[in-house]
Design brief:
It is a single chain. The chain is an alpha+beta fold. It has helices spanning 49-65, 78-92, 96-99, 148-157, 173-203, 285-290, 343-354, and strands at 9-14, 17-22, 38-40, 68-72, 112-114, 131-136, 218-227, 238-241, 247-252, 260-263, 269-271, 278-283, 300-302, 310-320, 324-325, 341-342, 366-371, 374-379. The protein contains 7 helices and 18 strands. It has an 8-stranded mixed β-sheet with strand order 3-4-12-9-14-7-6-5. The protein is globular. Bound molecules: 2-oxoglutaric acid (AKG) and fe (ii) ion (FE2). 2-oxoglutaric acid binds at residues 223, 225, 238, 243, 250, 252, 259-260, 300, 302, 312, 314, 386. Belongs to the iron/ascorbate-dependent oxidoreductase family. Residues 216-319 form the Fe2OG dioxygenase domain. Keywords: Iron, Metal-binding, Oxidoreductase.
């Protein structure tokens, strides 16, 4: 009798938990994607609702079938993007002790510098071969453009939840160039992401402004990343994972020919190389939950065996910290009950599960996290830094 058991599996972390997928080939292979679709986004800025709906239909199809697409003609200025990459590359080239002024472990909300190998998504590796610098929404930074009423509300109601960025203060030229360049890019990304949120609403057959009220001061994390070329066969830039935010927009520097890979249903890694003047957009776990699984949060990883240094800037978007988001009506099954998602509580739980080292300096043996009512125990260095 023929043995149909697949021999090989791909291992990953999805939704904060370890998982695996069999590699299916030949007659066992299922229909699945083999490339990442490219979508011309320029119609999202069109005056015509019909045009906006057409592009939303393409976005909806990609989110349902792949969970990833390239956003072409996104409208974010090339000059701003190149300025951000230049500043980030110069900043990473500084000595470690200069970068460690903003050590991520001294910040409650994990903003700042994360050294090489300090996270480990794949336990079979020596750690993720990348270093990172993270910023996000900070109502005290004027560049963050926090509306006055929101600022007053969050300062009164949630003072302990207010995230603060860590900007370098040592007056090196690279330190001084970082903030204006990175914030210039961040601001344009917030605007594009808000426009995209309206496209997602249309893609889900909801009114275009459906999500507007929960994105007045969205929770955004932007992580500048540097991946040296891998030295060992077992190295990985960032191990296989899903993102936990609503959606991610990744800008990849074209200086490195490849790196990002997306896992299809047959356990095959599909390349998502840099394509000039595009972002790679992917659905995160939060959006997958909010759409009751209609939109897919797809596993991906970064492998850099090119011999070149790789740089990328993922921008992770989520609704306001104090928002509550009901499961989108058009995605619900009749008669089934759905709990609304509390943005603040959701992220607190995911960040707690994902971080091995707490800002108070302790490194617990195990990190415990409540997930969907089940207590999961995860070995500390296993799950990491994915926003
Ligand atoms: O560097 C990239 O292209 C993607 C990084 C990524 O997947 C992440 O930071 O979650
Ligand atoms: Fe990711």
């Amino acid at each position: 009798m023929e043995n149909n058991c697949p021999k090989e599996y791909v291992h990953y972390h999805a939704g904060g938990r370890p998982g695996s997928r069999p590699i299916l080939t030949g007659k066992d292979a299922k229909p699945t994607f083999e490339e990442i679709p490219k979508i011309d986004m320029s119609p999202i800025f069109s005056e015509s609702l019909e045009e906006r709906k057409k592009v939303a239909a393409q976005v909806g199809k990609a989110c349902k079938e792949v969970g990833f697409f390239y956003a072409v003609n996104h409208g974010v200025s090339e000059e701003t993007i190149q300025g951000a990459f230049r500043a980030v590359e110069n900043w990473f080239s500084q000595p470690e002790e200069v970068k460690l002024e903003t050590n991520i472990n001294q910040n409650k909300h994990f903003r700042g510098y994360e050294p090489l190998l300090s996270t480990q998504l794949d336990p079979n590796t020596r750690g993720d071969l990348k270093e990172a610098y993270m910023i996000g929404e900070d109502p005290y930074d004027p560049e963050s453009r926090c509306p006055d009423d929101v600022k007053e509300k969050i300062m009164k109601k949630h003072p302990d939840l207010i995230p603060r960025n860590q900007w370098p203060k040592i007056p090196t030229p690279a330190n001084q160039a970082l903030r204006p360049a990175v914030y210039g890019y961040y601001k344009e990304m917030v605007d594009f992401a808000r426009a995209l949120l309206r496209t997602f609403a249309l893609a889900l057959d909801m009114p275009e402004n459906h999500f507007d009220s929960i994105a007045t001061f969205p929770k955004c994390n932007m992580r500048s990343l540097h991946y040296p070329s891998q030295e060992f066969a077992t190295d990985v830039g960032i191990g296989a994972h899903t993102d936990y935010s609503c959606f991610t927009l990744v800008c990849q520097s074209t200086s490195c020919p490849s790196g990002l890979q997306v896992l299809n249903a047959n356990g095959i890694w599909v390349n998502a190389p840099p394509v000039e003047r595009t972002f790679v957009c992917n659905v995160g776990d939060f959006f997958q939950e909010a759409t009751a699984g209609r939109f897919l949060s797809t596993v991906h990883r970064v492998v850099n065996k090119t011999g070149s240094e790789r740089y990328s800037i993922p921008f992770f978007f989520a609704p306001n910290m104090d928002a509550e988001m009901a499961v989108v009506e058009s995605c619900r099954e009749p008669g089934k009950e759905y709990q609304p998602l509390q943005v603040g509580a959701y992220f607190k739980k995911r960040i707690a599960a994902a971080r091995s080292k707490h800002p108070d300096g302790t490194t617990p043996e195990k990190t415990r996290a409540e997930d969907d009512g089940k207590l999961i125990l995860e070995t500390v260095k296993q799950v990491a830094a994915v926003a």
